[in-house]
Amino acid sequence: MMNLTLRVWRQPNRTAPGRLEVYQARGISPDMSFLEMLDVINEGLIEAGEVPIAFDHDCREGICGSCGLMINGQAHGPLARMATCQLHMRHFQEGDTITVEPWRARAFPVIKDLVVDRGAFDRIIQAGGFISVNTGSAPEANTLPVPKPMAEQAMDAAQCIGCGACVAQCPNGAAQLFTAAKVAHLAILPQGQPERWERVDRMVAQMEAEAFGSCANYGECEAVCPKGISIDFIARMNRDFLRAQFRGR
Ligand code: SF4
Ligand code: FES
């Protein structure tokens, strides 16, 4: 069992000032996940009649993108290719002090404590992250064969879970990696071709309309991305965006 000190960001709502509060985590099993450790702290707070720490979570297996915490200044904590819910306490040492904060980005305002509003991501998807389908019977599956290398590349991009770690870790708070992944996974597939140029145009425009910063090639996004999305997709998005501007001229 481990004993730890936690410094946790507490903020009652979007507009109230927040601050780091200190909590003692006693008798933590190294086999607990980071979120389970927070559950233990919360049980103690509830028993003491205090307000539990608000944090986002859903699947707790690295696929939904809900969880996301700055742990000692690193998005999703110290291990690469891992969402917060997949991080286990055995990666910390007895007696450690751990600072837990919400995503820090202007485009992701804090809702409460460790929960942020990632609606800006939803609006980027709404701007073009889809393929339009007409109603009618389902098309024959083999009418549009997808070459294997194309499918693999599209899947690499489609792995993005929309967690927002890329934005949180970027010194500029830029959303290029997320947007590029969402543009690419459709732009690579034959099904994505009819709306390819309009899609990139609209998604980039929405990204720029939100409060994200600009990409300056720091590469911090790729380093913290739990799915290892490559910044090569940003280059691909930029190429497609430029081509979209010159089409029809
Ligand atoms: S690109 Fe990676 S870090 Fe960014 S939202 Fe997608 S999965 Fe999360
Ligand atoms: S809770 Fe779903 S990815 Fe962590």
Which spans of ≥5 residues are poorly predicted at pLDDT below 50?
none
Rg to the nearest angstrom? 20 Å
Strands, total number: 7
Helix content: 25-40%
Distance between the termini: 67 Å
Strand order of the largest sheet: 2-1-5-3-4
Shape: elongated
What percentage of the residues does DSSP assign to strands (E)? 5-15%
Order of helices and strands: EEHEEEEEHHHHHHH
- Total helix count? 8
> Structural class, from secondary structure content?
alpha+beta
Largest sheet: 5 strands, mixed
Question: What would your notes on this structure say?
Answer:
This protein is α+β, with helices and mostly antiparallel strands. 35% of the residues lie in helices and 13% in strands. It has 8 helices and 7 strands. The strands form 2 sheets. A 5-stranded mixed sheet has the order 2-1-5-3-4. Strands 6-7 form a two-stranded antiparallel sheet. α2 runs parallel beside α5. The longest helix has 15 residues. The radius of gyration is 20 Å and the shape is elongated. The protein starts with a strand and ends with a helix. The mean pLDDT is 96. Bound molecules: iron/sulfur cluster and FE2/S2 (inorganic) cluster. The site of iron/sulfur cluster (SF4) has 14 residues, from α4 and α5.
